[in-house]
Amino acid sequence: MAEALYRQVASDLRLKINKGEWSPGTQLPSEPVLETLYGYLVGKGARLSRNTVRLAMAVLQNEGLVEARQGRGTFVRERVTFTVLASNEEGASSGRTDRDAFVAAVSVQGRHPEQLEFRMEIRKAALEVAERLRIDEDDPVVVRSMHRLIDGRPWSTQESFYPMDLATGTMLMSPSDIAHGTVEELRRHGHAQIGYRDEIVCRMPSQGEAVVLRLGAGVPVLEMFRTAYSVAGPIRLTINVYAGDSTRLAYDIGSQPVE
Amino acid sequence: MAEALYRQVASDLRLKINKGEWSPGTQLPSEPVLETLYGYLVGKGARLSRNTVRLAMAVLQNEGLVEARQGRGTFVRERVTFTVLASNEEGASSGRTDRDAFVAAVSVQGRHPEQLEFRMEIRKAALEVAERLRIDEDDPVVVRSMHRLIDGRPWSTQESFYPMDLATGTMLMSPSDIAHGTVEELRRHGHAQIGYRDEIVCRMPSQGEAVVLRLGAGVPVLEMFRTAYSVAGPIRLTINVYAGDSTRLAYDIGSQPVE
DNA sequence: CGGCACCACTCATTGGTACAAGTCGCCCCG
DNA sequence: CGGGGCGACTTGTACCAATGAGTGGTGCCG
Fold first, then answer.
1. Does the CB of B67 have a partner CB in chain A at under 8 Å?
2. Which ranges carry the HTH gntR-type domain (chains A, B) (predicted)?
3. Is the pLDDT of residue A203 over 70?
4. What is the mean pLDDT of chain B?
5. Interchain proximity B248–A196, CB inside 8 Å
6. I need a labelling partner for A77 at 20 to 30 A (CA). Which of A51, A194, B27, B185 fits?
7. Higher local confidence (pLDDT), B93 or B121
8. How many CB pairs under 8 A join A and B?
9. Which domain holds residue B204?
């Protein structure tokens, strides 16, 4: 066997998509059509079985190239990306809120931002949280979380973790948004932020994430762990999970040339 | 229908893996065994069809949780991650080479680094390259590329693009490694690097990348575009493609607390 | 003329079968 | 005792069939 039939079909379809022969949004031929269309691979006038065609489509879906909608058809996926400049957020001088920062950044790129489902709760710290905040596992932490949307599409989830001893007596314990922002609120209580470390990984989404972010098959997520520090140590851990197909993170390091 | 059978099977297997009931490296029950094992989902004493079981396994493979090897079995995937501190590389003071930086960073984490397949060629600039180097599409660029391995496993590919006018007359045109490093070589020719911008995206690998990096199904890649600047403008674009399941990028922004 | 029912088409799920191909160990034969 | 062959077991590929379920348009009926 030279190469599996379904791989040949997938490769040919992939080629057509990458060459722009089928542009984003285009509907692919239906499965029965593809059966006869690629029948020549096994013989003149022959047809492929439906399973073989579906295996090929599964490959492309897992690559995030196409998206199947039951009852409608299969379409070339189209996604626009939003760039997050992650290196100059949370400037010491700014009095703007986190919300404002997000709204401003998105609006500049000509999109419509939204923040949803703001929640505050108290949880026991998981291992990856405890390690970064330098507390013990299962120590209580304050969690403030939300979802973000761009142009009505789910884009990212955010969870911020604060050590209990820092949060007590501050507005961080309030179950609503803070007008002047959490960074400023912590500063007012003697925990001025001096910097942060971002750790970035990519992986396939969990089931829950796929639902919340409305990710199709074959779309990975970008996960960012931001540990913020005061001079005394960690004051916050923020975990952002971004839809991988519509997010670009940017960091400016050192000096940038004048434009 | 409550939920598709194959999804129920996948969910249950996923749960067992995540709970650590099956640790990394463990062999999963074979397909025929799973058919009977989960037969109870459709009725007492019943069996699932092999297709259903295989669909469930495909889900887990696409999530990067397990890895099937023909003739052997299906195994819980095990991967260790390597962290790249991307924010303090290429310091102006260091005389170290790029190679040394990689080797040192990996060795510190107790692993064995390798660099392979060094190549130099001249190509026409693709759009994404031309935009960042601020040259015209199809302008010639010097490309220097390599693969990197950790503990004998492919880990990342790197391609560095230099504008033709900067590279001519420098060692960048030589088809071999530069002892003092490319940053230093450019500085000697009047193009001192003052900073860079990193852009990070994640996506599913192309077929070629999956082969070169030996990625199993369901493993995404992290792609980093690093545009380096002198005071006059862009002097280099480096594109790194990392195996997503074994890479963590880190950026330190602002001050870090003293340890 | 408006709304609803139905049909035609799409992909989704599940069942079955057969054979190919890779891996490994056992057993027999030299 | 050593080595090769064979067989058992694994996943991979390919086919067929039937039914479920979502979408959209057409046309009939009130």
1. no
2. 3-79
3. yes
4. 89
5. no
6. A51
7. B121
8. 147
9. 82-250
